[in-house]
Amino acid sequence: MRDQTHAMATGQLQDTRIARLQVASILAGGGAGALARAGVAEVLPHSGGSWPWATFAVNLAGTALLAWLTTRLDEILPPSRYVRLILATGLCGALTTFSTFQIEVLRLAKDGYPGTAVGYAAASLAAGMAIAIAATVVARRRRYG
To answer: Other CB atoms closer than 10 Å to residue 143's CB: what's the count?
Structure first.
């Protein structure tokens, strides 16, 4: 009984360490992604009625990276690696921003630019899907090509 209790405690301690490493991995990647997004927003500022290039660019870049990473990492790394958490969950999760995209679409429409709002939303979705497909194809071709 005592050995069983010790084994359970050791297993719980190991689970706690793994969970902390997972959170730390996501935080590290998220910090990098958030800094990258903020940097792009500084380089490409957005003013009322204009196309939100910064959000458009980071969302498409994040889409391409996430599609490529999920395809490649799933094929070459075992599930326990922290690379997925750092790059896919952390970096891409913080780099991309659906909430800002949504606010920008609504603000454009509210401020009297409904055509730009619809165009921005449609272009973001269409380009995002095309880029995700292209990145997946590129990742797979590299493997099989």
So the answer is: 11
Q: How far apart are CA 117 and CA 133, in angstroms?
A: 24
* CA dihedral sign, ordered 64, 67, 68, 70: positive
Between CA 6 and CA 27 the distance in angstroms is 31
CB 94 within 8 A of CB 27: no
CB atoms near residue 112 (< 10 Å): 11
Chain length of the chain: 145
Output the six-digit token pair for 139: 């990742």
Q: Which residue has the tokens 């980071």?
A: 58
pLDDT digits (tens, 9 = 90+) for 63-98: 999 999 988 887 777 766 788 899 999 999 999 999
Task: Compute the distance between CA of residue 67 and CA of residue 136 in angstroms, rounded to an integer.
Answer: 6
Enclosing H/E stretch for 27 = helix 2-43
